[in-house]
Every structure is written in structure tokens, then in C-alpha cells.
């Protein structure tokens, strides 16, 4: 009886070794960077952590498909290294010596990636399923609300428009004042014109300045002396 039991266990061990090995069909490699992620709070990878990993994979398979009956014992780990990397496969308990298709395992892992990461206090970068693409990270929300940014832009444009109108108005007013001043200066200067009557040049009377025609002034002086 003991020999039969030992033989059975040996057969199972050999079968598991054939199913779970590097680059085996439907096998996935996992690499963990616990020290990088947690620093001084890093935990040791031991049999308990392996059990938790198997449990999380079984959970993911059951969560992915309601028809799945995956047990913890159906998840096989192999080639575990001290730097914490290993391979795993998920076997189909309903069939002998058969693994679950890799596409189903990948879909289940992707669907429950955050739950698995949280169980080990890691992220997609520190808990890597090398054949499974990382899940999309949630969009980063800006620290400043979008509506506040839009309001600030509109306010800046409005202020810039007001400043432009004020400056343009001031320039226009200065231009008008300058033209008006130049016009007044021209009127005050009043250009003096000279006309000739009977062969005698006569200067036009500048009414504003009270200018006296020089011809009449000379006549007045002559008659006065007489």
C-alpha cells in the first residue's frame, strides 16, 4: 500500500514537473521587486507568500469565469529563485494532466490585476507577469480643476482685451489733441501776404496781431511833420 502511494506521488510530481517548467505551454513567468517597492519594509518571499499567490490566481480564475472550479492546488509554481522570480501554470482539475489555456489565464490576471497587486503591496512595475501586458493606469487628474483653468484663461483674455481698448483709446485721444494743437498754432501764426496796388507794395493787415501797413505809416509820418 505504501509503495502504491509513493508511486502515485512520484507520478504526480513528474507530471507537475512536465506541466510547470520554463517556456512550457500555457506557463507564465513572474518577477517581483519587493525590496525596490517597499525598501526597509520589504517582506521575505516564503512558502506562505507562495500560498497567497496561488490563492490569488485561483481567485482570479473563479472571478473571471463563473464556471471555473479552480482550486489552490491547481496552481503550480516552479523554478523559484531567491531574487523572487518563478513560473506558474494553472491546471484543469476536471481533466488529467492538462493546463488551462494561456489566453484564459491572461484574461483572468488582467481582469483582477489590481487585486493581485494590492495583495502583495506591489504595482504593475514591481509585480511583473512577463507575458501579460500591464493594465492601463487610471488617468491622472490635474491638481487644478479643469473649470478653474478655463475660467482663468477666459479672465486673462478679457483683461487683455480691456487693456488693449484703453491703450488704443488713449493713443487716439493723444493723436486728436496733437492735430488740434497743430491746427491752432497755424491759425495763430497767420501767414503775412504782400499785395501790390498802383505799383506800391502793401502788406495785408494782420487783424489779430494789430499789424499796421508800413505804407500808410510812412504817409502819416510825412504829413505829421508838415
Which helices and strands, and how do they pair?
Elements lengths: L1 H18 L8 E5 L1 H5 L8 H18 L10 E4 L6 E6 L11 H10 L1 H7 L7 E3 L16 H44 L4 E4 L2 E4 L10 H12 L1
Antiparallel strand pairs: 1-3, 1-4, 2-3, 5-6
Helix pairs in contact: 3-4, 3-5
Which properties best describe this structure?
226 residues; alpha+beta; 4-stranded antiparallel beta sheet; two-stranded antiparallel ribbon; 50% helix; membrane
General description of the model:
Helices cover 50% and strands 12% of the residues. The protein has seven helices and six strands. Strands 2-3-1-4 form a four-stranded antiparallel beta sheet, sandwiched between helices. It is rod-shaped, with a radius of gyration of 50 Å. Its main location: membrane. Keywords: Cell membrane, Glycoprotein, Membrane, Phosphoprotein, Signal, Transmembrane, Transmembrane helix.
